[in-house]
Structure formats: structure tokens, C-alpha cells
Amino acid sequence: MSSLQTTLLILGASGDLSKRLLLPGLATLLEVKEDWDVQLVGAGTEDLSDDDWKRLVHDAFENAQASRNEEDEGAHDGTERLSARLRAVVEASSYRKSDVTSADDLEALLADCHHDPAVYFALPPAVTEKSCEVLAHIDLPAGTRFALEKPFGTDARSAEHLNDVLHGFLPEERIHRVDHFLGRSTVLNLLGLRFANRIIEPLLSSQHVERIDIVYDETLGLEGRARYYDKAGALVDMIQSHLLQVMAVVAMEAPASIDADDLRTQKELVLRAVRPWGGDVVAAGRRARYTAGSIGDRTLPSYVDEDGVDPSLGTETLAQLTLEVANWRWAGVPITLRSGKALGQQRREIVITFKDSPHVPDGLTGAERPDRLRIWIAPDELQLELNVNGPGDPYTIDHTQLEVQFNPGRLSAYGEVLAGVLEGDATLSVRGDSAVQGWKVVEPFLQAWRDGTTPLDDYAAGSVGPDGWDNLDD
Predict the structure, then answer these.
(1) What is the pLDDT of residues 376-396, one digit of tens each?
(2) Partners of 395 in beta bridges
């Protein structure tokens, strides 16, 4: 008897998110949870035959298995390389061309589900909202769970409306607002790093910390995502959801447990305390857009010349906000969140810079630098930078690093997310009030950008960012 029987119903299953992330994530999960009985049902606007659908799922599973087990050369064709466990899921899966805003189509999809379904909305926000409004009037199986991708709504008001719609027919614990960054092993390891170490946790406060920077710089450009990205931009795409959630984990007080209620309550208390640094949204927020340039052997056009881009929208490809968590622990500490595309170096890290030593005894000399705790979001590593007496002259201070690798975990980020959704554990999901609060944090900046009071700077693709910015380098 399986320990869990459920159906994963993916709305938007023929889209990029499903093929690139959801289905590979499911493959990693199924290889670990060998006793789970998971039926896969897909729905989309594309007219896929049964063979086409099974090939799509097969290829996504195979790619996931290959990336998790690169040393396995396998056999000569994809069917033989795929494990028997995954082949069985592929063969039992089904696909139905559907209008996910049609009650008849949604009822037909639910009828295809052999078990209580976890419905994953791999859809644009507006379509997700319409689909949920229709589902509110359909008799759902008792154990139905919903998983909704970011962005959740398009502003605070729409997020509140979507919460109201969902809460009209589903309890909060069965609503999973997905943020795959919370599935990353690095973020999960932050809980152990902070709250299982007496040495580190007492230092994480305004008494000892000078600043915190959370950076997610990418070397990738638009990569054909204009349809979504040109209406979102870097602030909504990355900071409003992902980086605010990471910040909440870095800054929150110790929860009583890692149960969903305890953990998510502590994160929400952080988000409620967030303010623009100095109370000035123009000074605390910066935006920029890449121009033509080169990254390695790739030449990128200006963002405004990318296919599908509407230059009149003024979409930023680099956003940087400096915030304050106005509470007892963190008041007076600037916390900068930054994310951008087409930058010269990939940088995915949390950097906690400590204040200078209040007194260095006379007679010790050298290149004293701030102590730093550096946590890489990818790869999963930690580095503590310290001043020590180095080799040679014992009276000279040198800077050194202590490094450790985190446990990378057995699942991909989306594998972790799907595990929570399928078994009904909301620990790694964003709670409804936090989804609204994330919008409330960024809306003053978005309004200033719409009004044109914050200039839209330029930076060449492949550079570190605009001239004159604090680009958060060392």
C-alpha cells in the first residue's frame, strides 16, 4: 500500500514552466519517494496527441535523471535510460486540451483524476485568477490542494481579492503560493545555521551587523521571455517575491518549530516591519536597463531591441532596493536587495557585513577588513571572512576565509516545492497575508518608477551595473 496517493493536475502543462521546471522536479521527487502513487494529468491550450504528451513528459524526466546522475552513461536510447519507476508514471499520465477558465473543461479534468488532486496553476496571474473564480463554483474533491505560481496577483489589491476568492472554498492550509526559492536547500539550511549555533545567532542584530546585501545577478538576458518579463521587470520578477522571502528567513526571530504556522508567522512579522531606507523611496530604490554588450562569447542587443519588448513600458532589467526592518533587532541596518539580468558575473549570495572591531590594540597592523558571513544561494556554500594573524610577521593582520559546503539535499528546488504540495505541507509556501505584504513593500517603489521620479539608468550587458551605483561588490 502506498504511503500517499494523489493526482498532480497541471494547468498550463504544455508551457515552458512545466517542461523546464515542474516535470523535472517531479522526476527527482518520485525517485526519492518510491512508495508514493502519483498520477500525472496535464492540461493546456496546445493540441497534443497522447504520444506527444508522453514524449514531452519522458524527455523532461530523462533530462532530470541525467542531471542528477551524470555518471550514468545509460543505454543507447532514452527509454532504456529512464528508470522503470518513471516510465510507469509516464505511461499512466494523460493530457487534455482545455480552456482552464471553462467550468465544463475543468470538471472534465477533475473527472480524469483518480485521487484527490493537487492542482498546479502554471499559468499567467490573470488566467489563474479567472480559473480560480470558476473553480469556486465547482464541487471539488475533499482533499483538493491548489498551488499558485508567483506573482500572486498583480498588486496588493488583486492579491487580497484572490485570497478572498480562494478562502471562499479552500482553507489556507490547502493553498500553496509557490516560491521555489524557499525550496532551495540553501534557504532551508539557513534555519540550521542561525538557530542551531549559539556562536552565530547572537551576532545577527544591529549591535554587530553593519549591512546585509542579498544579490541575485544573472548573466542571462531576456532568453525569449518578453511576453511575461516585459510587463513584470526585475523588481516584480525577483525582489517582490523571491528576495523578500529570503530576507524574511535571514531576519526573522527563531520560530518555536519549523511547522508551517510557526515559520510563516515569523516571516510575516519581518515583512510587516519593512520600510524604505530613510523613508525615501526615490533614494532607496534604483532601476536600470541593459544596453548592447558582450558576456563571454555571447553578444546581446539592447533590451529595447529584444524580440517582443515594448520600449515605451520602461521595463527595468536591474532593480536595487535598500530597506530597513524597523524592529528591535534590525533597526538602523540597511538591507539591500538586488537582482538583474545580462550582468558580467553570476552572483547569487547573501552577504552579512559586520561592524569594525571597536578597538584594535596598538602594535597590530595590516589590511584590516570587515568580517563577513557570505552564504551562496547557488552553489550551496558558506564562507566566514575573518581578520587573523597571518603567516610571516605575527604582528600583521591578514584576512582569511573559513569555508563549508551545505548539504545540497536530494531534491531540486521544484522537487521540494512539489513534495510540500502533494503531501499537503505548507511550510515552504507563502501565506496569504505575506503575499499581500510583499506587494505593499514594493508598491511605493513601483509608483515612483511609474511617475518617473526615479530615473531609469543604463548599463552595458556584461558590465557590473550602471556607473555611479554601489554595485555591492567588495
Answers:
(1) 887 778 999 988 887 777 778
(2) none
Tell me the CA distances in angstroms from 252 to 216, 249, 273, 330, one per residue in order. 20, 6, 11, 10
First to last CA, the chain: 56
Spell out the long-range contacts of 197-202 with Cβ–Cβ below 8 A and sequence spacing 24 or more. 200/373, 201/254
Mean pLDDT of the chain: 90
Closest CA to 318 of 238, 263, 208, 384: 238
pTM of the model: 0.92
> Which residues, 6 or more positions from 406, have their beta carbon under 8 angstroms from its beta carbon?
185, 186, 189, 380, 381, 382
Cα 350 from Cα 375, distance rounded (Å): 5
Alpha-carbon separation of residue 28 from 146, 198, 389 (angstroms): 21, 34, 46
Residue 205 C-alpha cell reads as 542584530
Cα separation, 143 vs 141, in Å, equals: 6
Is the separation of the CB atoms in 402 and 384 below 8 Å?
yes
Q: What is the DSSP letter of 311?
A: G
167 is catalytic: no
Q: Which of 114, 242, 359, 399 is catalytic?
A: 242
What pLDDT shows up at residue 318?
A: 98
User: Looking at residues 125-151, what average pLDDT do you find?
Assistant: 93
Residue 187 to residue 38: CA distance in whole angstroms: 27
What does the alpha-carbon distance between residue 150 and residue 32 come to, in Å, rounded to a whole number?
Answer: 26
Regarding beta strands 36-44 and 4-11, do their DSSP bridges make them parallel or antiparallel, or are they unpaired? parallel
* Nearest alpha-carbon partner for 16 in 47, 46, 54, 51: 46
**Reduced to 3 states, what is the DSSP secondary structure of residue 11?**
strand
Does position 77 have pLDDT exceeding 60, yes or no?
A: no
Q: Is 436 in contact with 163 (CB distance < 8 Å)?
A: yes
pLDDT bin (cut points 50, 70, 90) of residue 399 is confident
Please state the φ and ψ torsions of residue 261, each to the nearest 5 degrees: -65, -45
